Amino acid sequence: MSTAGAPGVQARGVGVRLDGREVLRDVSVTAAAGSWLAVIGANGAGKSTLLRAITGLLPYSGEVLLHGRPADRLKPRERARLVAYAPQSPELPGDTSVYDYALLGRSPYIRHFGRETRHDRAVTESVLERLDLARFARRRLGRLSGGERQRVVLARALVQQAPVLILDEPTTALDLGHQQQVLELVDRLRLADSLTVITTLHDLTLAAQYADSMLLMSDGRAAASGPVGEVLTEEAVAAHFGARVRVAEGEDGRPHLFLLRP
Ligand SMILES: Nc1ncnc2c1ncn2[C@@H]1O[C@H](COP(=O)(O)OP(=O)(O)OP(=O)(O)O)[C@@H](O)[C@H]1O
């Protein structure tokens, strides 16, 4: 699938109503193919809802294009080959093994009533290895810690090998080492395969370290979007998170946030 020059994901005027409530209003954003977009915002701002709309899991008004194709007109298999999504806290089948759950990511490539191929198994094993999960391969999901479960959800999404990768808070339950491991792996895959990555991350410094661009959501709307340094300002954090911070440039040239006690 050629991605050169094309936007990976485009949302234009996206709106979502849930239970009669307007949860998203007129949100427009573009993530260039091969780039990393961080969606940030306070609790309840609409980040997860936007991710679910982009993934095609929610009915929306407006337009979402995945590699130029309208997301709501894709057949499920087509969509699954184009976009992989790791939700924030999915319901997991407790009796399924780590390996079998991760292998589900290969479903869009396995023919109906067909079996997985050697390649499907090799991809699955490689992802489990890289996420430090190989030793848990036979363990049931119900017998994992929170952070291990979170890595398994990410594994399933990576096993899907879709060019658009959407991750809702992929690091919340992870210790520092695993946070770094997961984000570095995602970044390596992004660079190697030109993946378009969209994440929500509450740790704004972490988000700033990895993202090329940011979308700041507030009350269901896009409050700001653009290069990380332009969106992540002390004023914006005060206005939209109610937090006092100092934003300083780190050694990597990216903004680092320090919480200031009132
Ligand atoms: N089914 C629903 N019906 C009505 N309102 C909903 C429904 N699901 C979510 N909402 C509301 O939509 C708003 C946006 O929710 P969303 O989960 O997208 O926020 P978020 O920015 O991801 O928040 P968080 O940082 O807490 O995960 C919230 O106010 C939430 O209460």
Automatic annotation (TrEMBL):
Q: Pfam families given for it?
A: ABC_tran (PF00005)
- Decide whether keyword Transport is in the record: yes
Q: Which InterPro entries match?
A: AAA+_ATPase (IPR003593), ABC_transporter-like_ATP-bd (IPR003439), ABC_transporter-like_CS (IPR017871), P-loop_NTPase (IPR027417)
Q: Where is the ABC transporter domain?
A: 9-244
One GO MF term attached to the UniProt entry:
ATP binding
**Out of the domains of life, which is the source?**
Bacteria
Protein keywords: ATP-binding, Nucleotide-binding, Translocase, Transport
**CDD domains hit by this protein:** ABC_Iron-Siderophores_B12_Hemin
Protein's recorded name: ABC transporter ATP-binding protein
What species does this protein belong to? Bailinhaonella thermotolerans
Give the source lineage, highest ranks first: Bacteria, Bacillati, Actinomycetota, Actinomycetes, Streptosporangiales
